[in-house]
Amino acid sequence: MKRSFIVIMSLLLVIALLITGCVPKGGDEVKEPTDTPSTDSSATPPSESKKEAKILRTNNGSEPGSLDPALAQGTHESWVLDHTFEGLMKIDPDLKVVPGMAEEYMISDDSLTYTFTLRDDIKWSNGDSVTAHDFEFAWKRALDPELASDYAHQLYYIKGGEAYNTGEGTVDDVLVKALDDKTLEVTLEAPTAYFLELTAFYTLYPVNKKVVESDPDWAKNASTHVSNGPFTLTEWEHNATIKIRKNENYYDSASVKLDGVDFDIIDDENTTWQKYEGGDYDFLTPLPQAVVAQMKDNNNPELIIGAEVGTYYYNLNSKVKPFNNIKVRRGLSMTLDRQTIVDKIAQGGQIAAEGVVPFGLPDENGKEYRDAVGKLVEYNVEEGKKLFLEGLAEEGMKIEDFKNIVILYNTSEAHKKIAQAAQEMWRVNLGIEIQLENVDFQVKLDREKAGDYHISRAGWIGDYMDPITFIELWESNSSFNDAKYNSPEYDQLVKIAKTSPDPNERFDAMRKAEQIVMEDMPIVPVYFYTQPYAQKSYVTGVYKPLVNYPKLTYADINK
Amino acid sequence: MDNQINLSKDMFRPVPHEDRNPEKIRRPSIKYWSDVWRRLRQNKLSMVGLTIILLMILMSIIGPLINGYSYFEQDYSKINLHPNAIHWFGTDELGRDQFTRIWFGARYSLIIGILAATIDFIIGILYGGLSGIATRKVDNIMMRIAEVIYSIPYLLIVILLSVVFSSEGSGTSLFVLILAMTLTDWVPMAILVRGQVLQLKESEYSLAAESLGATKPWILRKHIIPNTLGPILVNITLTIPRAIFAEATLSFLGLGLQAPKSSLGSLANDGLAGLAVGNGYQIIIPAIFISLIMFGFNVLGDGLRDALDPRLRK
Amino acid sequence: MKKYLFKRIIMSAITLWAIITITFFLMHSIPGNPFRKEGKMPQVVYENLQKKYGLDKPLPEQYIIYLKNLLKGDFGDSMKSKVETVNDMIRRGFPVSAYLGLEALFIALIFGPALGALAALYQNKFPDYISMIIAIIGISVPSFIMGTILIQFVAKNVSWIPIGGWGEFKHTFLPAVALSLMPLAYMARLMRSSMLEILGQDYIKTAKSKGLSKSIVILKHAIRNAVLPIISVLGTLISNLLVGSFVIEKIFGIPGLGKFFVQSINNRDYTLIMGTTIFYAIILIVLLLLVDIAYIFIDPRIRLTKEGR
C-alpha cells in the first residue's frame, strides 16, 4: 500500500519536474530573421551598447481583440495600429492634420466631394504598392454589415455608408471610388468640416486588398500581418508581448529613429509602474493615480501630463423623479466642488469642467473654443441648495427620499474615489444621503441604455478635433444620450453644426447648444481628462495628439 | 508434605460499609465542555489567540466610536497623512480617519468570516456526514451533486447573487456576500467530513455499536462526529480566514462591500497603490490586523483541537 | 474494481453535463451583454453582432447549438477577441497556469506535510511553534497583498528576479512561491492535526511497545495514515492551482487561464466563460476521480469494503 502511495506522489513530482524543465510560452512566436538579439528579453537592463537596436520598451494595458483596423474597438488596439498603419491624413508632431498616405487632396466647392491623390512611394510591408483601391476596399469592408465592425459609424459621413451598414442600401451605393491606382474620390452625405481629420482615425486606415482577400486570417498572426505604417508587426505572443519593428518600406522611414517598440501586455497598473521604475520600460501610460500625484508634487521631470480632449461627467436620468426637474439637476451641479475633485482626488492635472466641451479644440478662427463660450458651470453651495430644495418641493419629494437614490459607476478604483467624494459633497452640501453601486462596465452600459439608473458615471473622449464630437452626444436620438435629454431647440442646433458648410454658423450653433445643455444640466460635468505618462529622461520625440495615445513614431533613445 | 495453609475465620473481616462504593468516581466530576475549557486554558498560545480575537471583537464594536471620526467623513485638507497623534493610523486618500475605518472594517471582516464559517460548518458536517454513512449509491449521488455545486464558478455565482438580491441602492450587501461565499464553500468541508467518516465508520467501535443494534444517526452523533471533530475544527479555523480572504479578493475585483463601507480586505486593497509612493501604512496596517485575526483563530483552533481530543487526555 | 471505475466515469460525465447546463443558464441570466459599447454604436450594428454570434436565437436553441459544438470539441469563438478561438486561448493559457500551479504544488507538497509532521512530533515544543508560525504567515496575508509586497521588496531588490512578466524560469519563481503559501499552510495544518491524532492511536502504541524504532513507527505507520486527509483535499487543491490564481496572474502579469476567466466574466464573453468553466470542471472531476482511486489504494479498509460489497 505504501508503495502505491509513493508511486502516486512521485508521479506528481515527476510531472512537476518535467514541466519545470521548459516554461510554456504564452503563444506562437513568429520572429523576423532581422530581429536583433537584444529584443529577446524584456528584462534586459538599460545598459545596451549603442550598436544595438534602439527598441523602446513599454506596456499596452490589455490584449488587442484584433489588429485589423476595421475590427479595432479601443485604445488597447489603436495604440499598436496607430504605429503600424497610416491613413490618408495623419497628425504631425505639431498636432496639425497633414497628408499621410495622400500627397494632396481637393475639396469641391459644395464641400461634399473629396479627391485624394496618393503618394508615389508608398508600399505595404510586404512590398506591394498602397493603392486607392486598397482604401476603397478597406472602407467598404468596414461598412459591411457581415463584418459587424464596432466603429463602422465613423464612415457614415460617406454617402450611402449608413444605408449599407444598416442593411438598407448596397455596397455599390457607397460613394467612395478609386478612380485609378492613385486617386480616391469620396462623396459625403453632408458637408463635414472634420472629415479630413477623420481619415486619420484607425477605422479608416487602409488594408491590403490582395492580402485580405486571399487570407481572411491575415490579422491574427505577426507572420501574415501586412501594414503600411512606420512600423510593422513582427511578433505577437498573445496576452504577453507585441513587438513592432521599423518598416523600411515606409516613405518617411528616414525620420524614424527607433528600430522598434516592444509592448508588454500587463493590465495591473501597480505592476507596470514597478517595471517602469525598475528600468524594464522606457515609457509608460497609464500610471497609477497615486504615482501621478506624487510625481507631480515632486516635479518629477519624467512625468508628462498629456493633453486629452475628454469629459468626465455624471448622467442624471431625466426620466426618473426628481431628475426630471431642472432645478434639482442644477442644484446638484452647483454643489459639486469640481476644483477639489481635480486638486485633491483625481490629482492627474485634470481641469475642472467648465462645460461639456473640453479645452484644446479650435474654433472657426483657430482660437481656443472654450474662450468664447466661457465657464458654464459654477460652484455655489448656497444658491445650489436653494435651487435644489425648491426643485425637490416642486416634485413633492423630501431630502430623505434620496436614501434610495444611487450613483452607478463601473468598477474601478479611480471612479470609486470620485463617486465617494461626490457622495460626500452632496451629503455635506445638500444633506442628502445617496448610495453608491459599482457594476461591471457591460452592466453599466446595459442599464444606461435601458434607463435603469438614477445617476451614472460616464466619460467621453473625442474622436476628432471638433466640438461636435461632444455636442452631438445629447441629441435626442443619439445612442449615447443616456441622460435621455430631449430638446428640439438643441437638436436643431446640432443639425446645423453637423451639416452647415459655413464655419461661423456651425460654431455659433455649437456655442449656443452648449449653453442650452448647461442651462438644462441633463448631465453634471466633472472634469476634463488628461493623459499623464512617464518617460525616461533619455527618451525624446514622443508627442501626444489630443485624440490619440502618445505617438512614438519619431521617438528616440539617447543613451 | 504439609503445604496446606491454615485459614482461620478470623483472618478475614468484612469490608466496612463506607469503603464499599466501587461505583464512586474519584476524580472530581467534570462536564465534557468544562474539561475542554480547563485544558484549553493550559495552552498558553491558544489563550493568546483567544485574547486577540476577543480584543478584536471588542475593538470592532467600540473602535469606530473612540476618536470621534466617522468612517465616511472626508477632509480634503488631510489626505494621506501618516499615522500621528490625531489620526493614530493616518488618513486615507480621501482624508478619512484610518483608525475608525480599520475597526469598522474589522467588524465586517469578522462578521463575514464567522458567519460564513458557521454556515459552512453546519452544511458541511451534515452533508458530509450523511454522505459518509449512507449507502454507496446515495453517497455517490451526494458527492456528484457536491461536485457540480463546487464546479460552478464562484465569481459567476457572486455576480449573479449580487444582482438578484441587491435591492436598489444597497449594491453588494453583507448578506449577499456571505450567501455567495457559503453557497459553494461548504463542499470542501463536506468532502473532508465524508473522508473521515469513511475511515472511521469501519473502525472497531462503530462496528461494535452497529452490531449492538445502534442506528446510523446514533452512530453518527455519538461516535463519528466527536471523533472527526479534530480535523473539522482545524478546517473551521481555516474557513474563517478563507472567508475573510475571499471577501478581500472580491474587494480586489471590485465585488466586495459597497463603498464607503469597508472591510479589512477592501482597506488593504485601497492601500495597494500607496505602497509605491511611500504610503505603505495604508496597506501595512490593515494587513497586520488581518494577520492578527488569522493568528488568533489559528492558534485557538489548534488549542481547541488538542483540548477536544479525548485521546490526548492525560 | 473495473465495474466501480466504469460507473464512476459515467457518473462523472453526468456531473459534467449538469455543470454545463447550470452554468449556461446562470451565465445568460446575469445582466450585461458582450456587445454593448460606450458611445455611438447604432442599434443596427449591435443587432448585427448579436446575430453574428447567435445571441438573437431563443436560449434553449442556443443551448442545443452549444452542446452540439461542444461534442465536437469546439468551444466556439470568443466574443471579444477576433484573433483567437476559445480553444486557442485555453490551449495557450492552460500550460502557463498549469506550470505555475505545479511549481507551487511542488513547493507546497515538499514543505507542507513535512512542516506539519514536524510540528506534530514536537507538539508544543519549539519546532511546533516555528512550523505553525510559518504556516500562519502563509495563510495570514491575502495573495494580492503578498504578491504586491513580494514585487516591492523582493523583485525590486534582487536583480535576477524580474518584476512580473513571463517567459523564463526566473519569471515563475516569485509567483509560484506566492501561490504555494496557501496550500502549503493548509497542508501543514491538516498534517499536524491528523498526525497528532494518529500518534495517539493504539496501533502506534502497539508498534512502539513491540520495540520498533521510533523512525520506523513514524514512517511506516504514522505518516502514511496521517496523509489521508491531505489526499482528500488534494483534488480540489490541485485543480485550483492548475487553473491558476487570477490574483497572482494579474499582479505578476502572467498570461494564464485565471486571468482569462476574470476578464471573460467582466466582458460577459459568454463563450469564454463557458469554455473556462467547463475546462475547469473537467480537471476537477478527473482529479476527484483520481483522489477516490488513490484513497482505495491507500486505505486498505476502504478498499476491502468497496470490493467486498
UniProtKB/TrEMBL annotation, chain A:
Residues 28-52 are annotated as: Disordered. Transmembrane segments: none annotated. The keyword Protease does not apply. Keywords: Signal, Transport. It is a lipid-anchor. One of its GO terms (biological process) is peptide transport. Residues 35-47 have a biased composition (Low complexity). Belongs to the bacterial solute-binding protein 5 family. GO terms for cellular component: ATP-binding cassette (ABC) transporter complex; outer membrane-bounded periplasmic space. Signal peptide: none annotated. Residues 96-480 form the Solute-binding protein family domain. This is Peptide ABC transporter substrate-binding protein. It comes from Tissierella pigra. GO terms for molecular function: peptide transmembrane transporter activity. It is found in: Cell membrane.
From TrEMBL, chain C:
Its main location: membrane. Gene3D superfamilies: MetI-like (1.10.3720.10). The keyword Transmembrane helix applies. One of its GO terms (cellular component) is plasma membrane. It comes from the Bacteria. The keyword Transmembrane applies. The chain crosses the membrane at residues 9-30, 98-122, 129-153, 173-191, 226-248, 278-298. InterPro entries: BPD_transp_1_N, MetI-like, MetI-like_sf. One of its GO terms (biological process) is transmembrane transport. Belongs to the binding-protein-dependent transport system permease family. This is ABC transporter permease. It comes from Tissierella pigra.
